[in-house]
Amino acid sequence: MSASQTTLRSRPGSAIDAERIRADFPILKLRPGGKPLVYLDNAASSQMPQQVIDRLVLYQRTQHANIHRAVHTLSEIATAEYEQARRKLARFINAREEREVIFTSGTTEAINLAMHGYGRKFIGAGDEIILTTLEHHSNIVPWQMLAEEKGARIRVVPINDAGELLIDDYEKLFNEHTKLVGVAHVSNALGTVNPVKRIIAFARARGVPVLVDGAQAAPHMQVDVQDLDCDFYAFSGHKLCGPTGIGILYAKAALLERMQPFKGGGDMILSVTFEKTTYNVIPQKFEAGTPPIAAAIGLGAAVDYLSGIGMDAIAAHEHDLLDYATEQVKRMPGVRIIGTAADKAAVLSFALAGVHPHDVGTLLNQDGVAVRTGHHCAQPVMQRFKLPATSRASFAFYNTMAEVDALVAGIRKVQKVFC
Fold this sequence. Notes:
Aspartate Aminotransferase, domain 2, four-stranded antiparallel β-sheet, Aspartate Aminotransferase, domain 1
């Protein structure tokens, strides 16, 4: 057995079987440049198993039609499958009601939906929105746009040198003008797992709603929106083994009932005259036009696949990978790990002394190792650490310890070239 085929059963009682799981992912068999693919860019987008690919093909070949609009057989089948996908997503995050799951094109649209639907209606001049230094641009820019339009103010929670939020500072930001908190569950740039339950509880006690960007959490851990008691939760399908162009915004039903629609058009209405439009019930109220039917069904298949493995087993294996990678990399002279929080998900960002991250990524790619380089759409984080960019290895449950070894060997080769 080659090193790249080493089983993932690296700890007693592990429920992960690498050879079985990796066989489900056709793309992992690729050999770019003649080298085995070591795919460590999962925070940007994970890969798709054959089971999800097959489900997409089945829909396109035998079930495709528009939904909610006709009584013919194909339309009824497509509608049923689309709504079944919604039920799967509701179970996946433990939503109280399936109508609290709104299909969007991804996390970015989900946050924009919350901004337009809730923020533009309930946030005004002089109000304040609390964000954190760790936010992805998708959870910064929409709120900046709103603040500029309404005359509101953005306030920011700082972080320490480990990349952890300063919670005491967060609590001090609250006052009578605070109207919303936006926080990443997991930092895409550093992997920091934020104490979102504590953050939410503090805001809840003061009547302030909280939006959680779960793009980097939903693929890596069990998410229970009722336990968190968040008001909004957003994530994307393509980061959890599903298709691109699909994601969800979870929101409490009472909030959705009060919100204004983000988009107008077909299917989000009950009646239309030139004098007045009456909006549909939730969730249709927020799903104007023909939705991404195939992608939603594919996302349903993806959460079936992940649930079959078990989110706890996925989290345990990915923590093993991260711990192993961290121990290997931190012993390397000239390599600085960026983000050393006590609680992290499967992200390892690093900087090599005297080497630009783009050069790191280019040379690693020559050995088949795919990592992300850049500011990761988190420029405030880069500014905090006085860096233009980092190299980021991000792990998924189908990665192996041998692939970590390939990453470490690749970093050593980069150092030999430049140092």
